[in-house]
Amino acid sequence: MTTTAPAIDRFRLPVPSPTTPVVPAHLAAPDHAHFTSNFRDPVWSLAPLVANPGEGLRSVTWRQFPAALRDEIRLVAWTLINGELRPSFVKQRGVKMRTRLSPALVHETIDHWKHFALWLADRDVRSLGACDQQVLHDYGLHLRDTSPSRSAAVRQFTALVRLWAFDGLSGRPAGFARPPWDEFGVDDYLPAASALGGENAREPLAEETMGPLLVWAVRMVEDLSGDILAARRESGRLRAIARSHRSTPQGKAALHAFFEPLLADTLPLPSNSENGAVRLARDYVLALTGASAKQLDAMNKTHALTATVALRPGPCPLQAPVTGLIAARPWREHLDYTETITLMRHLGTAAFIVCAYLTGMRPQEVLALRSGCCPDPGERPDGAPARHLIRVADPEGNDASEEPGSDEAAGTDTHLITGTHFKSAVDEDGNHVAAGLERTVPWVAIPPVVRAIRVLEQIAPAGALLFDRNVHDFACQRSGTGALKPHSMRVRVEDFIAWCNAEAARHGLPHQTIPPDPAGKVGLARFRRTLAWHIARRPGGLVALAIQYGHLRTALDTETSGRYGTRARGGIHSVIDIETALGVAETAADLREHFAAGGGVSGPAARRALLQAARTPRFEGRRITARFARTFLGRDGTVLYDNPHALLLCLYRSDTALCAREGARETPSLDRCVPGCGNTVRTDRHADQLRARADRLHQQAHHTPEPVAERLRTNAARLRSWADEHDRTRLTEPEAPPR
Predict the structure, then answer these.
(1) Which of 139, 302, 359, 469 has the most Cβ atoms closer than 10 angstroms to its Cβ?
(2) CB–CB of 167/181 below 8 Å?
(3) What is the rounded average pLDDT of the residues 348-354?
């Protein structure tokens, strides 16, 4: 009789020994491999799993778990970290179920298990094997009634499905039952639908907040960075001198010569602030005099310098140039030795804001950028410069085609940023890649972003992370690797806003104060949504004080950009599509309400616009996906766009659109609106705005020399003629077409 050996199940793992590593060597990231814990340790470090430089390091503390369930859950957790789900199991449950999880999701899953275990302990359930479907049904109802949102509940339900799956793959299964929501569906366990989720729910920053914030960030990078970097070099030179001096008679004499006039004339002494207390600026004094610390201590004891400086604190001016301007005036009389660290911190934050907002990268993608990520076009390995045409819309609605031979008409080299993406970064087997993957298509960098990266490259060493935590912790050097973490950067953004507001007050610029955002703190992830909002809805809005959005939208559409640094149609373009669809629905609703209230509508496309506005759906309370948004916006001739910059609505049809003369486009170029287009629609509100703008131009002409004044008056007359034409041809409710 022949016996066939049982097939080896490669997905089932053996029982680990007490000294088995929690994270095996082949899964450990090189930078954090030394944090490896053993199975028996009371605290497991998950740091070896983390390869993303912008991700925080997490741990699991087992004493927080109920003692009766601790060992069983510990074994399943080890299996979760070391094993992987069967492909058939993953395929049956869709793309959201990965065979191996990211470090953050591993920690979140085990944390959900902890809350489940505490719930079981309160009901005296002492084993995972005692959790039958009735127990899990009761827990599902508990989650339905206590979860803050449907998405939060889904994450907890998914964690328990993983608990069941990985318990079955462990070397000693506890017999945890299959959750009923995995077998019969999760709908009955979900709380009521709430607000939109994901990037739909994230509020864009208000124009009144984002406008001055971007102005200050760009100003910091472009106008003030040279002074700040020079001050940093000078401060570093002084610190090095201060720490290298020995006691000499010459140093002692220079020290007395420095202090005696200040003490005799009761002048302020060089000071700094330490833990809220005023202190003598020791390093600054030592560097200027060449004295030793021992000699300064002796003079302090003799002349009570510590007590005197508390009464008469003074500056520590640096011999560094001040070339930056704010409101056409030097922004400082001199830079101070004691403010260098603060200014460097704010400079790094400003560069982050510019990069995050004007590329549409996710925060961790910005934090993972490295020096050299944005070479000049001539330095690209492929040697092929990319070119795109930039058109700038005239503020008064003129056709803004470039003059022949201009730089814009000739095209311009495009800077591209190579970097790493982490969301949906998976290998060929569907496993999450903790270190991320390099983008196959780079991001497009407009000039302000390029300048921000060049500033960061003067701070970070060649090849290093642009936001390396050891480089940007200017006050002290801490242990650890990787980039600044998102929480730290969020704090820095709020500190930067406070500094900008103080500077606005110092320079008498109240209109450049950054007001609080109505939806709360600025954060980091809101930059991406805000970029999409402004590109989709305000191509000439308030934020254009700092950046011409027409430039950026053109960069988005270049062939080289690959849809703006995406591998397909996702990335920032998907967010722009969603935001555009929401804006289109709001525009249609506004037009319906305006017309129903007795308002007038005019223009070649007025009748079509009224019909389409009546048919356009509302999206309140509905989650809008990128696919739905693309389908919605792809209805040629039936999508109504608002163009507040040109003071009109556009019922876009590609075959009649004058902004699409160079080729068919899916959507209008709102920054290149051409007068006389057959897609134009205007309301009474637009007519009022045309006259108001004409009045401003006419008033400006009184204070402007010829021939510019004549051009302003001509533009004003044209705007009034459009308003008058609206009044003559407007349709009102009795003339409405049948619905």
Answers:
(1) 359
(2) no
(3) 95
How far apart, in whole angstroms, are the C-alpha atoms of residue 273 and residue 279?
6
Report the DSSP beta bridge partners of residue 38: 21
Name the residue with tokens 């298990």.
113
Residues contacting residue 97 through CB under 8 Å, at least 6 positions apart: 85, 89, 90, 158, 161
Quote the distance between the C-alpha of residue 43 and its chain's center: 33
d(Cα 86, Cα 96) in Å, to the nearest integer? 14
Q: Is the pLDDT of residue 736 over 70?
A: no
Closest CA to 75 of 26, 101, 39: 39
Helix (H, G, I), strand (E, B) or coil at 654: coil
Burial state string for 434-468 with b = 16 or more CB within 10 A and e = fewer than 16: bbbeebebbbbbbebbbbbbebbbebbeeebbbbb
Helix H or strand E segment including 106: helix 103-122
Once rounded to an integer, what is the mean pLDDT over residues 249-253? Answer: 90
pTM > 0.70: no
Calpha distance 185→469 (Å, rounded): 45
pLDDT attached to residue 656: 80
Q: Which single residue is written with the structure tokens 């569906």?
A: 185
Give how far Cα 445 sits from Cα of 418, 453, 489, 552, Å: 10, 10, 22, 9
Helices (H), 361-485: 363-367, 407-410, 447-459, 469-472
Q: Which helix (H) or strand (E) holds 437?
A: strand 437-438
What's at 296, amino acid-wise? Answer: L
CB 29 within 8 A of CB 434: yes
Q: What is the dihedral angle through the alpha carbons of 561, 563, 567, 568, rounded to the nearest 10 degrees? A: -150
Query: pLDDT, tens digit, for every residue of 493-534?
Result: 999 999 999 999 999 999 889 999 888 888 888 888 787 776
**Looking at the chain, how many residues does it have?**
739
Q: For 658-673, what is each residue's pLDDT tens digit?
A: 887 666 566 777 767 8
DSSP letters spanning 633-649: HT-TT-EEEEETTTTEE
Q: What would the pLDDT profile of 286-335 be if each residue is shown by its tens digit?
A: 999 989 989 999 998 988 998 999 899 999 999 988 999 998 899 999 99
Angle between helices 447-459 and 340-359 (to 10 degrees): 140
Q: According to the model, what pLDDT value does residue 508 have?
A: 92
To 5 degrees, how large is the angle CA 520–CA 525–CA 530?
75
